[in-house]
Specification:
The chain is α/β, with parallel strands linked by helices. It has one domain: Rossmann fold (3-Layer(aba) Sandwich), CATH 3.40.50. 41% of the residues lie in helices and 17% in strands. A 7-stranded mixed sheet has the order 3-2-1-4-5-7-6, with helices on both faces. The longest helix has 26 residues. The protein is globular and about 85 Å long. Bound molecules: S-adenosylmethionine. S-adenosylmethionine binds next to helix 4. It comes from Russula earlei. Keywords: Methyltransferase, Transferase. This is S-adenosyl-L-methionine-dependent methyltransferase.
Length: 310
């Protein structure tokens, strides 16, 4: 009898320890909102090559005509930049640009209108420094255009807080933008709605915002919401909106000509296949993406224009 009671006490204590551990993990260790680092550099390696990769993309890719990671990432970037209607000599703000490939693409791709100014802001210091290094190296190379655009890079959060006058979305910032782009990152922003609002203020009349982003086909349930926002820590609750709510939010902020395209079938399956080929951790991550998709997660490209009538 005393043995059973002792066993029950032991199990209860173990459960309590596990609960305490999970609580500490969820509320303290997962406080870092940014799950990224430099692991993505190996994703960009060309199969069979010993050379360091030339690209450092870190998005889920558009796997329409390719099975190669950097090509899929570039295809997604081009899809987004196409939606953003870049203007010749335009001023572009690229938010959450990671190691800077989308900025380098704007400076170098023959089919993209050449900007006069590219501003970038991204949250991780390592990504910011790497972008600065790569952009400087490109602009001082023989491949640089004769008329060099102005490139201003900032390390920080996408959302401007009132004490930061140097932020590109600050009302005090020296430039406005014809185009604002966010490639596979706005679902992290705290909050995305505030980012959309601030961007609207800093777009020139007729300017365009385009985002390659995550949302849902149906409203996510409370446990799922808790899992994404607290356990994985990748998306604040208020960003977990359906496609219809996302369009409504953009409309309420004031954007016109809003267009959303659901490109999920060209993003998740290709990215999952790529991950599965990278071993057990990749396969586990691919499984999580499959599960999230089953819960209604969608990958979209959404754009809106600030009307010139205002
Ligand atoms: C999936 S990666 C995409 C990187 C890049 N756009 C690309 O395609 O290679 C998301 C990027 O957004 C950045 N990020 C996450 N939260 C952010 C925030 N609140 N403000 C600015 N950047 C953020 C991350 O550090 C990371 O570089």
């Amino acid at each position: 009898m005393w043995r059973r009671r002792y066993l029950g006490y032991f199990i209860a204590m173990m459960l309590l320890y596990i609960l305490i551990f999970v609580a500490i993990y969820v509320y303290f260790l997962r406080r870092s909102k940014d799950p990224y680092g430099t692991f993505h550099i190996s994703f960009n390696k060309v199969h069979g090559s010993r050379d360091p990769p030339k690209t450092e993309w870190l998005n889920m890719g558009l796997w329409k005509d390719t099975a190669v990671f950097p090509e899929a990432c570039q295809a997604l970037a081009l899809r987004l930049l196409g939606a953003a209607r870049l203007k010749p000599n335009g001023r572009v703000l690229d938010v959450g640009h990671g190691s800077g490939d989308s900025i380098l693409l704007q400076l170098s791709h023959p089919e993209l209108a050449k900007p006069s100014l590219v501003c970038g802001i991204t949250s991780l210091p390592a990504h910011h420094h790497r972008t600065r290094e790569r952009v400087n190296s490109f602009l001082s190379s023989a491949d640089a255009p004769d008329k060099k655009p102005n490139v201003l890079l900032f390390e920080g959060d996408a959302v401007w807080r009132s004490d930061d006058r140097e932020h590109p979305l600050s009302p005090h910032f020296a430039h406005e933008f014809e185009s604002i782009v966010a490639l596979d990152c706005a679902y992290h922003f705290d909050t995305r709605e505030e980012f959309l609002r601030q961007s609207f203020q800093r777009l020139t009349p007729g300017g365009c915002i385009a985002l390659a982003d995550l949302c849902f086909s149906t409203p996510p349930g409370p446990m799922f919401t808790l899992f994404l926002s607290r356990v994985l820590g990748i998306m604040p609750r208020s960003n977990m909106v359906t496609k219809e709510q996302y369009v409504r939010q953009m409309n309420d902020v004031g954007y016109k000509n809003i267009e959303m395209e659901d490109i999920t079938p060209f993003v998740f399956p290709g990215f999952q296949l790529f991950l599965r080929r990278r071993g057990n951790i990749g396969a586990a991550f691919a499984g999580v993406i499959g599960w999230l998709q089953g819960q209604g997660l969608r990958f979209v490209v959404i754009k809106g224009v600030k009307s010139s009538d205002r």
